Amino acid sequence: MAEGRHSPLDGLLPWSLPDAVRLAELRFARQIGLRLRPPIPAYIGGVPLPLQPNRVAVMRAVRTLWLGPNEWLVTAPDGAVPELLSWITRAVADRRAAVTDLSASRVVIEITGPRARALLEKGCGLDLHPRAFTLGCCAQTLFARLPVIIDQTGAAPSYRLFVRRSAARWLCEWLIDAGEEFRFLP
Q: Most CB within 10 Å of its CB: which of 115, 142, 161, 164?
């Protein structure tokens, strides 16, 4: 089935400027939306839930992003945890909850390299300085006028940018254009 799937970023990524920034796609990532009424447990179906605003909980390949007081986005690379959706669905069966497979709705762009933060700062009003936004932080925001989710995955720094599938190619071209400046900086 994977051979029949196409990404809007085919032919565009990966892209990089050596020693500056690299863009790649986390292709066909599993994305599960979870809404849960209180009381909120620390784990649901074996998946950790961050209970602090704009934080990420990690368990092996699974990352759970806090999006709101009763809303999370559970993510994993394609094929890493095939039973993830069923685990979560079974775990909330006796609770007031909503579990939605959002995998086809967003594209995930990975941004890494020494200039990754500088590139993101060009399109975003968030304070991404390490004292304010560090490994394990996430946020929903506007980026280049598009709604996105930013997840900092590494201290190097490295980020994942979740963007609606319909806008992914435009945003990726914007990132490449904005990143071209780093070609001329020391």
A: 161
